[in-house]
Amino acid sequence: METLSPEGSFWIFGYGSLIWHPPPKYDLSIPCYLRGYVRRLWMKSEDHRGTVEKPGRVLTLIPYEEWEKFSDWAQTPYDEGCWGMAFRIPAPFAKEIRAYLDDREVNGYTAHDVPVYAHIGDKKPILEHCLVYVGTSNSPQFQPSETIEELSDLISTRKGKSGPNYIYLFELANALRHLSPESKDTHVYKLEAAVKNKLQML
């Protein structure tokens, strides 16, 4: 039986733009589920979705035990977790693509090793080791706990070298809807609705 992780290869878990803009040279992808985290648009973007003067907001992952310290308007149920897509990078390209990912996620993110699951109720992970980039609360880019009103105002108007901030949000919401019937995200879908309402008024 072929192993999912041949020697020298690695897996990267995408929970944001990597889902719809995957890394180059991957040879296999799997929709999967990360336990113990919630997804939040709590990282400043001073390049791709905003500027230094007017930063946008992009995603990070918050560990449950840390998230509980914040006054979070979305009140995500614990069983939602975080759905995303894992991409396998073959051994011949591992060094090259790891360098590409380190550069892509340079703005406030650090690399972590996590297990991921095929279904919410599974006891055994489908992948024991998966690379994921997380913007921790120690990062200077971390900006937590804005209200839905404040965050939707900001995302509706900010723009960076990769385009408007709201396009990032809409691409994310559309991608999440197609990952799995189990995939839900209160934070993202509430924010998507609020931003669409803002744009209609601009």
Which features characterize this protein?
single chain, 202 residues, alpha+beta, Hypothetical upf0131 protein ytfp, 3-stranded antiparallel beta sheet, two-stranded antiparallel ribbon, 28% strand, globular, GGCT-like, glutathione specific gamma-glutamylcyclotransferase activity, ChaC, glutathione-specific gamma-glutamylcyclotransferase
Write a brief structural summary.
By secondary structure, the protein is an alpha+beta fold.
Mind telling me the CATH superfamily name?
Gamma-glutamyl cyclotransferase-like
In order across it, which strands form the biggest sheet? 1-5-2
CATH topology term? Hypothetical upf0131 protein ytfp
Give the class from helix and strand content and strand pairing: alpha+beta
Q: Which series of helices and strands comes N to C?
A: EHEEEHEHEEHEEHH
Describe the global form. Answer: globular
Largest sheet: 3 strands, antiparallel
Computed over alpha carbons, the radius of gyration is 17 Å
Are there runs of 5+ residues with pLDDT below 50, and where? none
What is the averaged pLDDT score?
89
Do you know the CATH architecture?
Roll
- The percentage of residues in β strands lies in 25-35%
What is the CA–CA distance across the termini? 56 Å
CATH class: Alpha Beta
Q: Level of helix content?
A: 25-40%
Number of strands: 9
Count of helical regions: 6
Number of domains: 1
EC number: 4.3.2.7
Organism: Schizosaccharomyces osmophilus
GO biological process, one term: glutathione catabolic process
GO molecular function: glutathione specific gamma-glutamylcyclotransferase activity
